[in-house]
Amino acid sequence: MIGAQGLAGMALSARDVESELQETVQQLLGRLKSHNLFQSGWDIAAFTVFFTFIGTVLVLMLLVLLHCCCCNSSSPPKRRPKGVDNLALEP
């Protein structure tokens, strides 16, 4: 069972989380008001990497949808003979 100290510790941590969340929101709102979203080169790099990843995933999903919807899968694929004909074996 959780004692009184455990409950007080949990309540205190919830308050800490709430205050940290409020501070983060205030920082974000301050950046939006100042029109300075990127404070360093690392912010710009992280933004670029994130959106490059998202763009790549979206392009791959689009290619999969195009392949599934536009390819004619009702006809069987044409089979070509494999290998090379060895004309020396013919009589």
TrEMBL record:
Compartments, as annotated in UniProt: Membrane
Transmembrane segments: 44-70
One GO term describing the cellular component: membrane
Primary subcellular site in the record, as a coarse category: membrane
Highest taxon listed in the record's lineage: Eukaryota
GO terms classed as biological process: lipid droplet formation; positive regulation of cell migration; regulation of actin cytoskeleton organization; regulation of cell cycle; regulation of cell population proliferation
Keywords annotated in UniProt: Membrane, Transmembrane, Transmembrane helix
Membrane association type: Single-pass membrane protein
One Pfam family hit: SMIM5_18_22
Cross-referenced PANTHER family: CLCA DOMAIN-CONTAINING PROTEIN, SMALL INTEGRAL MEMBRANE PROTEIN 22
Protein's name in the database: Small integral membrane protein 22
Organism encoding this protein: Sarcophilus harrisii (Tasmanian devil)
